[in-house]
Amino acid sequence: MKLPDVAEALTSRFGAGVAGRVEFRGETTLLLQPEALRPVCEFCRDELGFNFLLDISSIDNFEHEPRYEVVYELYSLGNGLHLRLKTTATEDEPEVPTVCDLWPTANWHEREVWDMMGIRFARHPDLRRIIMWDGYPYHPLRKDFPLEGKFSDVPDVAFTEPAPLAGGPFVTAPVKGTTEVREPRARRAGDLPPEQAFIAEP
Amino acid sequence: MSDRDPYAYDSKIEGNIIFTQLDTAINWMRSNSLWPMPMGLACCAIELMAAGAARFDIARFGAEVMRFSPRQADVMIVAGTVTYKMALAVKRIYDQMADPKWVIAMGACASSGGMYRSYAVLQGIDHLIPVDVYVSGCPPRPEALLDGLMRLQKKIMGEHSFLEQKKELLASI
Q: CATH number of the domain that A59 lies in?
């Protein structure tokens, strides 16, 4: 079985559940309606041999609706096929069904998406934060969360303070030059090129 | 006894006795047996290990006894990026160390947050605990750490530990 056959099988079986299909450099991405996610995943695992969930990631399309996308990377070890599934979640109701019961590895991936992006997974057995600590009030990978962070305090566990960005963000410059020229510092649009802007200490 | 150095120790005259100040003797002992608490949190810890290994040999300065219990350590070498998640653990370990104690902030991250100007990283361990020596570098070479250690030794040699303790004692009664 080849990848186009997989895509054909899924579109013919689920019809409108598969809202779109993107082919890019030999990679196939299927866009799914949220309610079609569970049946498609079950079908992929049980009938099409996608026995390995590589990763779950998420996208924040800030100021567009639906705001969030959740991306599932499936792999079939038997056929050597890689399939990408995408589904959406709205800003008001950022929730998609869990796939923990299909691929146990999804447990921690979904916890990470919940922690960093704030998308809930319905019927997840243990939806706790995995990277930030319990009680941290924000989801840092959302586009409306500032890079320097926000103040927070959980007594005896952890606290955070905004970092001084000094006009940053601090970025390295992809130019030729010494490490002094290239080192991370605040750079803004319209600045001189780093090798001109940087004046070495005498 | 040479003319140039009339105060040098002369074993023929003085035998096995050395006259000195108590402060100097205490500082000499403290500065030459600094047992580090290796707070290795990131890549700086690799350089710290290199400083401990044969090529650079931190044992030349009496600091080879890495103690993984804070209760047996004198100097905490904070080697690496201190995240907010780790920050209070570092402070707790520092609090558990017995006085007198010192801190070396090794590398850019421990000193100032380094290149991590972000929501997750404490912008310098001196926000939480007092730092005696900052070592620059990302990561610093083992020589730089050894230089920092020697500066700390110099700093300890200039302390008036006994006098200070006596003053504190007199003030308390």
A: 3.30.460.80
Q: Residue ranges of chain A with pLDDT lower than 70? A: 167-169, 172-176, 184, 189, 193-195, 197-202
Instruction: Look at residue B84 and tell me if it is in a domain.
Output: yes
CB A153 within 8 A of CB A159: yes
- Best A170, A171, A201 member to test B by mutation, with max B CBs in 10 Å, is A170
Q: What is the pLDDT of residue A202?
A: 46
Please indicate whether, in this complex, the C-beta atoms of B119 and A163 are within 8 angstroms of each other.
yes
- Full domain range(s) for residue B46: 21-172
pLDDT digits (tens, 9 = 90+) for B123-152: 999 999 999 999 999 899 999 999 999 999
pTM: 0.79
Look at residue B11 and tell me whether its pLDDT is greater than 80. no
Residue A196 lies in a domain: no
Residue B62 domain-assigned (yes or no): yes
Record: contact A159-B120, CB cut-off 8 A:
no
CATH number at residue B94: 3.40.50.12280
pLDDT at A139: 93
Question: Residue A174 falls within a domain, yes or no?
Answer: no
**Which residue range is the domain that position A32 belongs to?**
3-145
Distance to chain B for A45, nearest Cα, Å: 37
Q: Which residues of A touch B117 (CB under 8 A)?
A: 147-148, 163-165, 168-170
Residue B1: per-residue pLDDT: 44
Is B142 a member of any domain?
yes
Please name which of B65, B13, B30, B1 lies closest in space to residue B152, comparing C-alpha atoms: B30
Q: Chain centroid to CA B80: how far? A: 16
Q: What contacts B131, CB < 8 A, 6 or more positions away?
A: B78, B103, B104, B105, B111, B125
Q: Write the single-letter amino acid at A89.
A: A
Gap between the Cα atoms of A84 and A97, Å rounded: 17
**Could you give the number of structural domains in chain A?**
1
Interface of B with A (CB under 8 A): 84-85, 87-88, 113, 115, 117-121, 123, 127
Whether B48 is in a domain gets the answer yes
Taking only Cα atoms into account, the Rg of chain B, rounded to an integer number of angstroms, comes to: 19
Number of domains in chain B: 1
**A115, A136, A159: best to mutate for the B interface, most B CBs within 10 A:** A159
